[in-house]
Write a structure and sequence with these properties.
The complex is a heterodimer of chains A (996) and B (258). Chain A has 996 residues and is of the alpha/beta class. Chain A is 23% helix and 15% strand. The chains are: A alpha/beta (996), B alpha+beta (258).
Amino acid sequence: MIPNPFETAKETVDVAPKVADEVKTTTCYMCACRCGIRVHLKNGAVRYIEGNPDHPVNKGVLCAKGSAGIMNHYSPARLTKPLKRVGERGSGEFEEIEWDEALALATEWLGEVRARDPRKLAFFTGRDQSQSLTGWWASQYGTPNFAAHGGFCSVNMAAAGLYTLGGAFWEFGEPDWDRTRYFMLFGVAEDHDSNPIKMGLGKMRTRGDAKFVSINPVRTGYSAIADEWIGLRPGTDGLFVFALIHELLRAEKVDFAYLGRYTNSAWLVIDAPGEADDGLFARNENGDPLVWDGETGGLHPALSATSPVLAGARSLDDGRKAVPAFELIARRYLKEEHSPEAVAERVGIDAATTRRIAAELAEAAFEQEIVVDQPWTDWLGRKHDKIIGRPVSMHGMRGISAHSNGFHTCRAIHLLQALLGSVDTPGGWRYKAPFPKPIPPGPKPAGVTTAPNTPLGGMPIGNPTGPEDLIVDDAGRPLRIDKAYSWEHPLSSHGLMHMVLHNAWAGDPYPVDVLFMYMANMAWNSSMNVPATIKYLTDKNPDGSYKIPKFIYADAFNSETVAYADLVLPDTTYLERWDCISLLDRPISSAHGPGDAIRQPVCAPDRDVRPFQEVLIDLGARLQLPGFANEDGTPTYPGGYPDYIVNHQRSPGIGPLAGWRGDGEGGESFGRGDPNPDQLDRYIENGCFYAQEFPDDAQYMKPFNRAYLDYAHKLGWIPSAEPIIFQLYSEILQKFRLAAQGHGAHQPPPEHRDRVEQFFDPLPFWYAPFEEAALDGSAFPIHAITQRPMHMYHSWGSQNAWLRQITSKNRLFIHDDLADTLGVQDDDWIWVHGHIGKLRCRARRMRGTNPSTVWTWNAIGKRKGAWGLSQAAPEASDGFLLNHVISDLLPEREGGHRYSNSDPVTGQAAWYDLRVRIERCENQSAEGCEPAFEPLGDAASPPTLQYGSGVKADPRGTTGVPCREWIGNRHEYAASVDGMADGHGGDAKPKLKAAE
Amino acid sequence: MTDLPDRTERKLGLVIDLDICVGCHACAVNCKEWNAGGHSGPLTDTAPYGDSPSGVWFNRIHTFEVNDPETGTGRTVHFPKSCLHCEDAPCVTVCPTGASYKREEDGIVLVNADTCIGCKLCSWACPYGAREYDETEGVMKKCTLCVDKIYNDSLPEESRVPACVSTCPVGARSFGDLGDPDSDVSRLVEARGGVALMPEQDTKPVNRYLPPRARKGPPPQEASGTSEDRAPRMLNHDSGERDGAGLIARWIDRALSN
């Protein structure tokens, strides 16, 4: 029939076209959260990425970053071929070379150093998810100078947790979202842990029976949906927590039984001022710590005591006095100086609010106690017929960590959790496998002795247990380039990547010959004091040679750092590679059970690039490193990274992947077993992950739970099945303090003594962040902090076409009242003065921020010409970094020494200590943010991007199937909404018709 | 100028929970990637790597503060916005060519790119600003409620739901037939007191927003003043001493029996 030309044409929608030729699973790497994804491929290109519903981390959801993976994968900023520098550093002048030449050059540089002095290689790997490989490579090479980015990320949080609870927030634990009744979120946490926190908050609020308190100077993101926002002053979280502890102790609202059994509260601390063991635990001849046992009325080994007493001085067998650690805790935090009234002004929170929060905590923990009828047995064989839950949970991350008092503040939070008896109980904060581990986990760091062509004799990163474990020479001087594990930062469990460039430039403690870095933007947003950092990279000796002689850099994208490298090794995107997300590193476990995962290549690279891990294994073989090359010189892993993932064994039967181990029939064993040649296929069949659940009696109370401890020991996660008793009073810290007081064989050099003595307090304490303490408060009266927007957090190379449409410029947010004082209106240009320099940016007013605090979105500002952006990109002209005014060093001390601007215990970069002064620019017609740097290039942007036109679906002309409805948080609603079917999302269990 | 159907068999739409939206943009970006290759794709981006990058998005999140000058309290609000698939959609009736239309079977409002002349009348007519003009292609685009996804049996079953819904990390988005009072989404709207956006515009939007729940915040008297006597003292301070010596003495002989 001929259509009537005067009738409106009707569209026939093909509602069920064939979308993909193939769907492959893999693991996201748009941030560090390790979600499972399904990648829909069409015509060899990526059509659509969605969350994998079966995956234990994200259960089908996917954040903005993960959803923007397509634009990351096809970014014009991708590097395409190995590059050799031909111009001056920073000029961006390179010549493209072949891989053979690149690898030969790298092998020559690295081999020469290894044969002479392996320490002269500094190998730092940024946002590396393969540290069990890269750290081992460094160890086999023989350099102690290895770490990833943890030192400028959140080592305060990690170390405080590991030295107190044997676990830590985010990576090694999570709130019991299903049962918690009171959740406290400390500081900027978005987006660690990206999707799991959002899923948990959504479920918790939908359930409606919990209170969510956000303690954060800024009310954005998660804080926006909190029941209550505590907008305290940056760096005062510790004072706030101590005031809560003060109140709880005064009201005796602490879990005495929990403290007595599961923490070292009852352990007797020797009270012998001036003696070498003052402040250490009283121990018997076997070295067991002692408690006073109320039943027997005598001293008793702590781990087998049945009625430990928490207070009262006791006489030891040698006649000296000792007091239980809890009494020291009580004495300290009951002091008036920790009362809500005493801290109110400094914290910026009135005493009434603090007291009420304390009361609410007590109410949630003790009046809303959860009883789970699950028998379990503790380490002494005592049977418990139920599990008592204290449903208060907490989480903290960068906001706590990035202050120079962050380690002690985070320990204070753990002390609060323990006082409430909530750790690893139902409704509390729970460990994720393979944690808990001994406090602290082994091994200790290696690296005191190094020798040409010789492996290190241990892993370069570890956890010291006393002064004897430091990586220092006989005079107490640092032996690592970043001064990690030195008297300046003894418990720097993640190293200090942020100090490497400065120290290598200064030759302090020594110069390096080769700098080898991966996936960290050290010439830009990953360094404090960017202008100085650029100088470190470009400064020359009188003979014209660079002070940092050779710089090898591996990355997938043309970041600001690439321009300074001498040799660039181009990496693939995350969709083009193998990877393992290993229990030896940072796996995908949850509180319910262990899990690990892989990445598989879902696309072949269209450029001459290679996965970094593949390159590293290749270099290991070329350098003939033990473990990477066989005795006959042939490569141990000729199949590259996947070969290593399957066949490498760190100890017999234990390798990078725990699932489907065992050769021969089945390949079914978990945790231990021979390499299974089909292991990767098994992972792929299962969606690229393995997960299992703990037995019911091993789900909670894990540090003290016989069933759990045996399980973990069998899998090799803990060296023995001994209980893990919380170290609220840290004897390890006291050992350092004693050394500073002149005791023992390993003592700090005189110039560091006062500092070590002050900051190695065995109990958490608060001190003003260093920059605040050092500067004249009236000259720099304002705190300045940053946070990364959720749609970009931890997202390497997220400078992609879609995400930058959401945020491509940033403003400095200022409280209305402060803005009024400064005479600043929205979009006004302002000068921000720090003590090392100033920057110009634009302002935005708001109310939801602490009145003495300004803040901005981090890492939006880009250097002109980097990241494949045109020079007109707003990121360069209307985006800025606070980094430019954050000092990498603290002000000079007596003798001219300058410490890193870091936590004195862990070396954590103190990003959020920044203090500034603000003034409105006289010239409001200013052209762009300052400081401005020389452009790095000028990529021309195409006028348009029409992604999707090449991946259109094939029509099928069918009507498809009926659609299903979907209820977000369906399971939580099913309990409260009449007639709502239970289930998940669109998967509803059949409704039971009410009897009629 | 274009007729709406007298009635639709179903009223498919979204239910968006403003109580738990954290403004993460997951919905917007997952929508963008699905629809870039979907029914109305591509969703053109201009100056993608240059100045003023902008493009076609079916879903945008607005973040703003709501402040109460009287109490000094305020709230940060994240508000995701997309087409509400109105029953009396003015964007359809204003369309001179019939390109903008509402489907009889499910009520989804779509644009037929073949007959759209890019006159933009619909974007003027829509009170919600939910239409997106693709300058490059010269046609109007908008949320399709993932019409090529929700019925699509070439996809895994769990994927047959609008992209913004299944991807939402906090679970703030639900989807279903809001015309069926017995549907789970209708029950949800009923239970949470879901509201229509700007009902005074008389467009009868299908989508619903769930308002923020009451917050378990400070009691009112505390919010309006900070004096100590107004603060609740829920804890039992039975020791009047400020250094805790008496308390510690009490604990000395307290053995913890296991």
